[in-house]
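Work Package 4 report. The design task specified in the project plan requires that, given a folded chain encoded as structure tokens, an amino acid be chosen for each position. We show below one input record used in the internal validation round.
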């Protein structure tokens, strides 16, 4: 009896064990088939992933990524709480994703709550998902403001801003022993140009400074917070959320009256002597947006104008700062540029039309953007549907991040990539199509569907500013016995860690 019980007992447990292992097998097969084959990456902790490793590393994020590159290669994953980042550092993969399979990789991931407020729920060119709203907004911006014929129409605005810029540098140098701040002055000059293009009104210095302060506060509150990655922590950030609402309110309260002022100037031509004939705002008041009946609201107008100003201000000024740093560090390059300017224009002021005859200036700007892309990451991309890249899965709602410096300094693409050498583009030794259509070799403006629509305008600004700066002044290091320190730090763009101060000597 006992043995019969034992054998029944045995049989029962054997069947149970068989049943359970069967279930485990089936379950594991099922979960395995569902498990994603994400690109490799550093092992992380449950729930938080690599978030605290990154946060506690003491390194800026771009440095953290740079340091992972030798180990994980062209494509790797970082888990940041609830967000998965897939980082691309290889030109061929970027070409495949953004050019060959462009539409698939052309959308943006979901926004964090702060960004959603400032973008009016993705109602901007840069944040809109790939679809009709994006198409309408981008087409309007490109065709009505950033096409080459439109850019030419704002020539006078640039000329007057450049004269003021040179005047500011001269006056600052006069009272500071010949020393000037580069980024601050360059930033102010570009900001003035974009403000006029955006609002079509000439503004006094007080308004410009106030607007700039608001823009800066916006960028500060837009800085990612830990609860963007771990929303469960958001109850601990109510103070920060309050600050976000305050800054948004300040921005709206300050900008709506300007939007109204321009509207009035358009309705009563000639009533405002500071109004110029055309502006970005004019294209927005009654803008038709695919799939929507109404034109943009005041809040949306504020958001679209801010995008226009933000897109082109820090980026361009940052490039000028690195550019001047390189001209100081390479006096022979500076001298050669000055010669080109003299030979091309003689004693008159450089005009933007001269630039097409100035191959060396163009080479300098290209080399500068290769070596110092103002933003190390493009804006975050996402896929419209789950796919694979480089043999790995790319699910929807992951952040696809493209790390520009890895491409611009890839020794498989560039000879002596670490050297600042504009000659590489002059001799025809090396060439680049900055739009990346044929081949991706550098990505300061991104490539593909989401390529920076301001590329043309930005290049006009960079050529003009650098040419005027070098035509008017000889630039040298300050203090004179110190080498330029080329380390960078992340603000909104990657600026020089030690903000550049330079000594200038008027040429005549
Ligand atoms: C040197 C100056 C500039 C640099 C380095 C720069 C760089 C970039 C980069 C890297 C992107 C992201 C591309 C991507 O996601 O793949 C971008 C997008 C964008 N930029 Fe620029 N930019 C500059 C100037 C400008 C200017 C002058 C404007 C307009 C006035 C502008 C407006 C935009 C907009 C609206 C987008 C979003 C495009 C989209 O998502 O479809 N940028 N820019």
């Amino acid at each position: 009896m006992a043995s019969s019980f034992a054998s029944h007992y045995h049989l029962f447990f054997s069947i149970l064990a068989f049943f359970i292992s069967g279930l485990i097998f089936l379950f594991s097969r099922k979960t395995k088939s569902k498990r994603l084959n994400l690109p490799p990456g550093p092992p992380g902790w449950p729930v938080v992933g690599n978030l605290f490793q990154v946060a506690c590393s003491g390194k800026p994020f771009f440095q953290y990524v740079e340091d992972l590159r030798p180990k994980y290669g062209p494509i790797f994953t970082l888990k940041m709480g609830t967000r998965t980042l897939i980082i691309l550092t290889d030109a061929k993969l970027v070409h495949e994703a953004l050019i060959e399979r462009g539409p698939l990789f052309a959308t943006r991931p979901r926004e964090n709550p702060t960004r959603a407020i400032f973008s009016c729920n993705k109602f901007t060119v840069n944040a809109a998902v790939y679809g009709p709203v994006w198409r309408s907004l981008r087409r309007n911006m490109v065709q009505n403001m950033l096409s080459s014929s439109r850019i030419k129409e704002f020539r006078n605005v640039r000329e007057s801003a450049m004269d003021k810029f040179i005047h500011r540098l001269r006056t600052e140098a006069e009272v500071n022993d010949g020393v000037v701040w580069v980024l601050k002055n360059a930033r102010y000059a570009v900001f003035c140009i974009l403000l006029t293009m955006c609002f079509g009104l000439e503004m006094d210095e007080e308004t410009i400074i106030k607007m700039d302060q608001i823009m800066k506060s916006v960028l500060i509150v837009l800085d990612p917070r830990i609860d963007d990655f771990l929303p469960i922590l958001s109850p601990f950030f109510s103070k920060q959320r309050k600050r976000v609402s305050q800054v948004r309110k300040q921005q709206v309260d300050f900008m709506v009256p300007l939007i109204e002022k321009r509207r009035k100037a358009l309705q009563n031509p000639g009533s405002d002597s500071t109004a110029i004939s055309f502006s970005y705002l004019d294209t927005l008041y009654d803008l038709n947006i695919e799939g929507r009946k109404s034109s943009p609201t005041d809040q949306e107008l504020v958001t679209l104008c801010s995008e226009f100003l933000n897109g082109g201000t820090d980026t361009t000024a940052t490039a000028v700062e690195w550019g001047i740093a390189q001209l100081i560090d390479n006096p022979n390059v500076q001298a050669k540029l000055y010669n080109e300017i003299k030979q091309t224009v003689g004693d008159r002021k450089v005009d933007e039309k001269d630039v097409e005859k100035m191959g060396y200036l163009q080479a300098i700007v290209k080399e500068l953007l290769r070596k110092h892309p103002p933003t190390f990451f493009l804006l975050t991309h996402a896929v419209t549907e789950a796919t694979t890249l480089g043999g790995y899965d790319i699910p929807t709602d992951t952040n696809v991040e493209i790390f520009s410096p890895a491409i611009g300094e890839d020794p498989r693409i560039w000879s002596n990539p670490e050297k600042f050498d504009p000659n590489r583009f002059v001799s025809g030794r090396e060439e680049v199509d900055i739009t990346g259509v044929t081949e991706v070799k550098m990505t300061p403006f991104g490539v593909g569907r989401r390529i920076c629509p301001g590329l043309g305008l930005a290049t006009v600004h960079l050529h003009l500013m650098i040419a005027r700066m070098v035509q008017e002044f000889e630039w040298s290091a300050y203090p004179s016995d110190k080498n330029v320190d080329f380390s960078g730090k992340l603000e909104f763009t990657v600026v020089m860690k030690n903000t550049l101060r330079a000594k200038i000597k008027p040429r005549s």
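Residues 125-126, 138, 307-308, 311-312, 315-316, 319, 374-375, 378-379, 444-446, 450-454, 457-458 surround protoporphyrin IX containing FE (CB under 6 Å). Validation will be extended to a larger panel in the next phase.
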